Amino acid sequence: EDKVVQSPLSLVVHEGDTVTLNCSYEVTNFRSLLWYKQEKKAPTFLFMLTSSGIEKKSGRLSSILDKKELFSILNITATQTGDSAVYLCAVEPYNNDMRFGAGTRLTVKP
Amino acid sequence: KAGVTQTPRYLIKTRGQQVTLSCSPISGHRSVSWYQQTPGQGLQFLFEYFSETQRNKGNFPGRFSGRQFSNSRSEMNVSTLELGDSALYLCASSLEPGLASTDTQYFGPGTRLTVL
Lengths: 110, 116
Fold this sequence. Notes:
The structure holds two protein chains of two kinds. Chain A is mainly β. Chain A has no helices and eleven strands.
């Protein structure tokens, strides 16, 4: 059965720290992997990854996919309190039945 | 331009009733996707509409249905409500169809449905 596992489930850091969030998956007919940031409102789309080894970057956030080892990481450098949120990883196979991870709850303390 | 809007924002229903939720995409966006978010299940994909046609469907029972109108506005209907249907229902719009497109999805604030 297709599944997406995120780790850690929760993380507490201090401002300025760098964090790495992990997402591993087992999906038949993989098509893409997506990262979302969710605060107290609807999730915000961050990245979509389809190819291995190509880093996507947006400000202090970056993400990369390894299709051989079946995982992706989301890096956040110089964290700020505004980065506190749940970060969701989702995988879309070609059969279009998306699978979501449980999320990583990141808390950034001042 | 205005973002994705969803109405109503909050809804309370009882078991057995039906409910219709509405989503207005960003102007010019023709793709609308629906998601259900519950604490135990996380974010789950319901369906995607483009040009009034359902393109993709998640693993939900037939009680969940939707449609899209010619102006790209979409509605989602849940019939015979169950307690487990209590959730935040999110709508997202984008320019291009297909969840694997490089297009960015923009999410609405969601409709929080409580089933008593």
